[in-house]
Design a protein that fits this description.
Elements lengths: L2 H16 L1 H17 L7 H29 L5 H28 L3 H20 L1 H9 L2 H11 L1
Helix pairs in contact: 1-2, 1-3, 2-3, 2-5, 3-4, 4-5, 6-7
Length: 152
Amino acid sequence: MNVSSLRMLVAGRTADRFGPVRVSAVWFLLTAAGALLPSARLPLGLTYAVVAVTGVWLFSAQVMVYAAADRVYPPVGRAIGLGWVTGIGRTGAVAGPWLGGTLAASGDDRLGFLAFALAGLVGAVRVALVPVTRRSAGRGVGRARVEAAVTR
């Protein structure tokens, strides 16, 4: 079993038990914490381990967001919702390296760690708000908008 299969097995089993919305929010929080740790100037071996585990949390959190989209969007608008979720994730994948490079070039590498930790925190908060969004969508407001967009 390779590392990718192992991380998806652990994330999938955890999401089956606690739900993809909760697991994704927690994974994004762990990603934020993991992004801050290298700024503490850890020993090199420990830094590698922290970066590896943080990457697993980040990758798993993003995949969990796809699973969470199933809980948020009604069947008629699920493809549109998944497209938005994917687009936002890809935007971060493009902007992240640029931002990291720009901050590293500024001479203060700790700003890069802080920026990525803040991105993880924003991801956790946004995903944690999904149940709130789901409750308001259950009253018909969100569902009507999605159905109107799909039927145009």
